[in-house]
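Protocol step 4 of 6: structure prediction from sequence.
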Amino acid sequence: MIVDTETIDEFLARRSSDVEEAVRQAAALEIMPRWRRLAAHEVDQKSGPHDLVTDADRKAEQYLTAALGALLPGSVVVGEEAVHADPTTYGALQGAAPVWIVDPVDGTRQFVNGDPGFCTLVALVQHGELLASWTYAPARDQLATAIRGKGAYLDGEHLHSGTPDPGRDLRVATSHPDYTTDDQKHALRGLWTDGVSPRPCGSAGLEYLAIARGELDAVGFSWEAAWDHAAGLLLVEEAGGAHLTVSGEPFRVTGGNALPFTAARDEATARRLTELLTNAA
């Protein structure tokens, strides 16, 4: 664990820049050299043709697992690829130790297609509480960070999500149809209504960043994998936004959420979308 005299807040004040450097290095060493250079043998399917994994995902997660564990002794890592290999590792989110939640390449399909719309996501959680997050889009060299109670930033600029413009349709990114079941599509159907302009989402992490920047009004998602949501949810919160499930409660990264859920630029928008989602169920 951290030395007895140091709290997590003190660790973040002292070492958050080192976390940032680890994220940048993972991208520089393991992700960007493979972008637009992937060979066929470096891309595999997991659950199906829309669920891809590459050598960049695996190698970047291995790098981050070692680097983050060294920065915070006694912490554990819950990474997307490690959980795919051994689903029991997801249970660490229920424990007492600090947990790094890692998505090495969020938006793998975009990465495979040579599109810049992918990012690396890292969040620090303890006892289910989101404490800090890093969202790095290496092809765009953009880094967004958030520490609970200290605001959200993009490349050093303070982020404010603001509120949607009155009278304009809400711009909402939703779970991509390629990744949703018929039941999930039905649950999200409430967003296809007057006053809402939905579209399929790309990288979840970059959609959350767009909310924090005030470029997107909300998301409506139907799955709860912590690595897709943890970093972005804290970023949205610290920029002034809110997130709610159809039960009316905030999303919990530890799981067991009533789905679908929304994250939005402000609480009023989150509540409006939750009502639409609830009525569709």
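Step 5 (inspection) to follow. The mean pLDDT is 94.
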